Amino acid sequence: MMELLIQMAHEIGDEFNSRYRPDAHHANDYSFEVLTHLHGRGCRVSREIHALLRYGYPSGALARWRALHEVTVVANLIRMHGGDVAERYLRHVDIEDSRAVVEYQKHSTKLGHSPYTELEVAQAVARKEALLKEYGSEFGKPYGWASDILKTSDPKFAEIEEKAGLSHMRPYYRFASHDIHCGPMGIRRNVGMPDDSWRTLVLAGATNLGFADPGQLTALSLYQTTACLVTTRNEVEFLVGIKALDVIRERTVQEFVRIQTEQERQMKLMPTPIVHVSGRKLFKWSGQQ
Asked: What pTM value is reported for the model?
């Protein structure tokens, strides 16, 4: 069901892009440019998540959903506030490029790579300085493209999330971060393991648990990203398509709930709950409990 959802979203986005790109190009429509690219990225990340789930890596899938959520947040903000924000978003690439060039130049010798020429570095810095002169020093911050709409000199992703109306997803976003950053919560809270099993088990491979959260979250975020794109045009065909996609999204969610319910039922029937790694029991930690 999830594969069908992703394919439907892909086809809707592909048809939308083919139909409206000529006019969008002629009108210099920055929102269209950003939203089509974000939607394409959303489809790709969703396929990565699907692959991870198929092979038993729900924590990796949840980590990739975190990236998908960021795509959805930016798409919502662009959809809500339009061309000026989209233009700033696209032009911010020169800020990030300048930062990357300077950082690479600093470490290129130790990495064994050829450094940029002095002219290349100067050109990258000049592009950045021109943007700072046009938009102000706050544009140079990591999320500086959103500084004007947020009315702050140093915007954070959480503020963009709130402005886009998706701050209620913050608990899931934070939970998904545990397996990205190397903090202790990544040991104690893993979506692919039973609660508190970290005291006796170490998850070192695939698991048969924990598919519901990343699956349901992916279905929701991909649907939202697709809706952000197609609702920029009042075209009945695409509005019907997004309604159909919502039906498949709901069925996908229900299927993941069914899978999780069955997993929990099977776990209760076991004398000692066991997570399997490629058909083998996980090794137990013999350290202090």
From this structure: 0.89
